[in-house]
Specification:
Layout: E1 3-8, H1 12-15, E2 20-23, H2 33-36, E3 37-41, H3 42-47, H4 53-56, E4 60-64, E5 74-83, E6 97-102, H5 119-133, H6 144-151, H7 153-187, H8 189-197, H9 202-236, H10 247-274, H11 277-283
Parallel strand pairs: 1-6, 3-5
Antiparallel strand pairs: 2-5, 3-6, 4-5
Length: 284
């Protein structure tokens, strides 16, 4: 059973806005919280067989603690609270049993929450405070949002590349549709002239010139959608917690593709439909 332990203080849960779903938080007013109390996450409740979060309260735990004098020492205590599952690793990693405990001997990091309106001044104050307690140890700090950016940098690059290539593909596709619609209108100008003489409306002419292109777009969607679903579904398999790809995403994408195609060929279709039919027939 994969597990992790977090050495925390009394303000850890409040600072990181973790949600307690059963029991209570650590309290400075209860001395035993620092010596014999644990808070666990929902995954720990399930994997330890405690039933529900409420049933886990009061259960006894024996958990390893870091001690330079006794490397294999165990801490005995009771579960006083259960927090909602939270990620402190990449989303590529599955949630694991997590135990929080007060254990000052193992503190080596400090989490500071502050307003970023005057970050430089706040950092200076943090550094001054650090020097008071550990003057011989240089302070090294990172921002949580930057850590997440580093964690998901490959995904950000993939998103940027997909955006660029998708934009280029749409642009090239629109150029192709524009050229094809111009060619179709020119090739069928005699037919358009005859239809207008016989009473065809502008809307009817536009639909006549557009339907073939819309049919091609729909066929391409039927071919591309299963391939896109398969590719994205395989990519999502790397994440233990993922969204399901719903059918409406492809429906919305198809509608967007048809709309872009219609806008692209609309100009040429309207232009061909508004031409005087006598001019087209005379040219023939």
């Amino acid at each position: 059973m994969a597990s992790a332990q977090l050495m925390v203080d009394y303000d850890y849960i409040k600072t990181l806005k973790l949600k307690i779903i059963a029991g209570r938080d650590f309290s400075k007013d209860i001395p035993t919280d620092s010596t014999s109390a644990f808070i666990i996450n929902q995954t720990a409740v399930r994997q330890m067989g405690f039933g529900s979060p409420e049933q886990a309260i009061g259960k006894t735990l024996l958990w390893p603690v870091w001690d330079s004098q006794q490397p294999d020492s165990l801490k005995r205590g009771q579960v006083i609270g259960v927090v909602k599952d939270f990620h402190f690793k990449s989303l590529y990693d599955k949630l694991e049993t997590t135990v929080l405990q007060i254990y000052p001997q193992a503190y080596w990091k400090v989490a500071v929450k502050f307003n970023t309106n005057d970050a430089a001044s706040t950092i200076n104050k943090v550094e001054d405070t650090w020097k008071k307690f550990a003057p011989d140890q240089p302070i090294e700090y990172t921002f949580l949002d930057e850590s997440f950016k580093v964690m998901y940098k490959p995904e950000d690059k993939l998103r940027s590349l997909l955006l660029i290539f998708t934009s280029v593909a749409i642009f090239i596709g629109c150029l192709g549709l524009f050229g094809l619609s111009a060619y179709a209108a020119e090739r069928r100008k005699k037919e358009i002239g005859i239809r207008k003489v016989l009473g065809a409306s502008v809307e009817g002419i536009v639909m006549l010139l557009s339907k073939d292109f819309v049919r091609l777009v729909i066929i391409s969607l039927l071919i591309a959608s299963p391939i896109a679903w398969w590719s994205m579904n395989n990519w999502l398999q790397d994440f233990p917690y993922r969204l399901n790809i719903s059918w409406w995403i492809f429906a919305l994408s198809g509608l967007a593709a048809i709309t872009i195609a219609m806008i692209t060929i609309f100009f040429q279709s309207i232009k061909a439909a508004l031409v005087n039919p006598v001019k087209n027939l005379r040219a023939e």
